Amino acid sequence: MQKTATPYGSWPSPISTSLVLAESIGFSEALVSRSGTLVWLEQRPSEAGRNALVSRTKAGEVAEVIPDQKWNARS
């Protein structure tokens, strides 16, 4: 493998923004219901940008409120 000098920041990289963001999950709109259940939105790039509505009970049970991937909680 031959080394080539390039200006700072101009070298080719196998790591792209898409690669990094594809597996990241964003969290927003978190709230706690009167029963103590925590509910939030998860932004999922790996599911075509779908927003999933997720809940967690006081007992620790986590479930998707809308489990079907064809539905987006934002639309």
Word description of this protein:
The protein is 8% helix and 32% strand. It is mainly beta. It is elongated and about 65 Å long. A four-stranded antiparallel beta sheet has the order 1-2-3-4, with no helix packed on it. The chain has one helix and four strands. The chain has one helix at 17-22; strands at residues 26-32, 38-44, 50-56, 62-64. The chain starts with 16 loop residues before the first helix and ends in an 11-residue tail after the last strand.
- Low-confidence segments, given as residue ranges, are none
Our Rg estimate from Cα atoms comes to 19 Å
Cα distance spanning the termini: 51 Å
Helical residue percent? under 10%
Beta fraction: 25-35%
Tally the beta strands: 4
Q: What string, H for helix and E for strand, traces the elements in order?
A: HEEEE
Strand order of the largest sheet: 1-2-3-4
Biggest β-sheet: count, sense, barrel? 4 strands, antiparallel
Give me the number of helical elements: 1
Shape call: elongated
* SS-derived structural category: mainly beta
Mean pLDDT across all amino acids: 87
List keywords for this structure.
75 residues, mainly beta, 1 helix
Secondary structure layout plus pairing:
Blueprint: H1 17-22, E1 26-32, E2 38-44, E3 50-56, E4 62-64
Antiparallel strand pairs: 1-2, 2-3, 3-4
Give the gist of this structure.
The protein has 75 residues and is mainly beta. The protein is built from 1 helix and 4 strands.
